[in-house]
Write a structure and sequence with these properties.
The protein has 11 helices and 11 strands. With 383 residues, the chain is an alpha+beta fold. The chain has 2 domains: 193 residues, no CATH class; 115 residues, no CATH class. The strands form 3 sheets. Strands 5-1-11-8 form a 4-stranded mixed β-sheet, with no helix packed on it. β9 and β10 form a beta hairpin.
């Protein structure tokens, strides 16, 4: 049994998606609701990571100074040095502590991503590999059924089931032999009978030969005729139920790419890519990653990261529904960062920083620059 990404997608994401679609029959709104539910559920984990990042950003200079002092003081005693560094981490916090919340939430986010890339928002492809032999080798072939990995397919709104492509006689044929690729649920129910229960649904598999086109002939109903010996790869496609449905300014949730082959520009997708880049930049600004005390080279990299990361989607396109999810999730992350960056610092950290600022001010007349939107302590504000 699969307890990974597929399990989370089928047993967590899809039920939530169906629930919201049952309330408001719009797959666009269902994506928005699903994204917000998952983001609110992961809020504590993400908040821990943001708080740790903020704390490390603020205490890094003092922590580095203390670490250097420990290394000099106990340079001939590695055990004592390690003990003092451990105490230092307990006092300031471990820089790696913020990584654990990120790692814990990754499977959930991957499952959400996989859900929005599948049915009903996108067409689902099945790959079928064939081996064709000369007729004189017929007696060497032992028939054995070939089945692809099942994939979740929406047959009607709120109705879906795992469906696999099946070759009952196997994927090893001889020249002149005919066989047929069938689609059926994991319970063995033919897809054609399943679809017949929902007359308003029009789902017709489409076939194309991606390798060895001269070796086989395939008909619209999935019937294959072997022509020449060799290896062949077929691709069967089941259309996504909501792939061509729009939402707000988005023309089609399943559309992939900002440009068509004829050069036409899809401004809805371009707009989402630009908005994603802007939200990413604002998030970096709020978290203090766009400049500040960073080295000039690192600061320049941080500033260009939103441009590079968002521009990547022009050349490695994603379905419009996935882009919408990423934009909503990033806006949520930006709002969360804004709120958490205004939280008062832990008392011990605040006292350390006030002491450091007094020392810095007395020696150079300068004080530490606050992170964007960072709330100053009441004591400092009144002084």
């Amino acid at each position: 049994m699969d307890f990974g990404i597929g399990f989370l997608s089928n047993n967590v994401m899809l039920p939530i998606l169906d629930f919201f679609y049952g309330i408001v029959p719009s797959y666009g709104l269902a994506i928005v609701a699903l994204t917000l539910v998952i983001r609110f559920a992961l809020f504590p984990l993400n908040a821990g990571s943001i708080r740790n990042m903020r704390r490390m950003k603020i205490t890094q200079p003092l922590m580095k100074k203390r670490q250097e002092e420990i290394q000099k003081l106990y340079k001939d005693d590695p055990a004592k040095q390690q003990e003092e560094v451990s105490k230092l981490f307990k006092e300031f916090g471990n820089p790696l502590a913020g990584c654990l919340p990120v790692l814990l939430q990754m499977p959930v986010l991957f499952a959400l991503f996989a859900t929005l890339r599948g049915s009903p928002f996108s067409d689902i492809n099945y790959s079928v590999n064939l081996q064709i032999f000369p007729r004189e080798q017929l007696e060497l072939i032992q028939p054995q059924a070939f089945v692809t990995k099942p994939q979740n397919i929406y047959i009607a709104d709120g109705v879906h089931a795992p469906v696999a492509a099946l070759l009952p006689a196997g994927n090893r044929l001889v020249v002149g032999e005919k066989t047929k690729v069938e689609f059926q649920t994991v319970e063995g129910k033919p897809l054609s009978k399943f679809i017949a229960e929902y007359p308003e649904t029009e789902i017709a598999p489409k076939w194309q030969i991606t390798k060895g086109e001269e070796r086989v002939q395939i008909q619209e109903d999935g019937t294959i005729v072997a022509l020449e010996p060799g290896e062949v790869t077929l691709q069967g496609t089941l259309p996504g139920l909501a792939a061509n449905r729009g939402f707000l300014f988005i023309d089609a949730l399943g559309r992939v790419g900002a440009f068509d082959e004829d050069g036409a520009i899809h401004w809805d997708i371009v707009g989402m890519i630009i908005a994603f880049g802007v939200s990413l930049y604002i998030n970096q600004l709020l978290s203090g990653q766009s400049g500040g005390d960073a080295a000039p080279q690192q600061a320049a990299i941080n500033k260009f990261t939103p441009v590079l990361f968002s521009g990547m989607f022009l050349f490695f396109p994603l379905p419009a529904g996935v882009l919408m999810y990423m934009l909503i999730a990033n806006i949520f992350q930006t709002v969360q960062t804004f709120i958490l960056m205004r939280e008062p610092l832990p008392e011990n950290i605040q006292k350390m920083m006030e002491q450091q600022e007094k020392e810095t001010k007395s020696s150079s007349g300068e004080t530490r620059e606050a992170l964007p939107f960072e709330r100053r302590s009441k004591k400092k504000a009144s002084s």
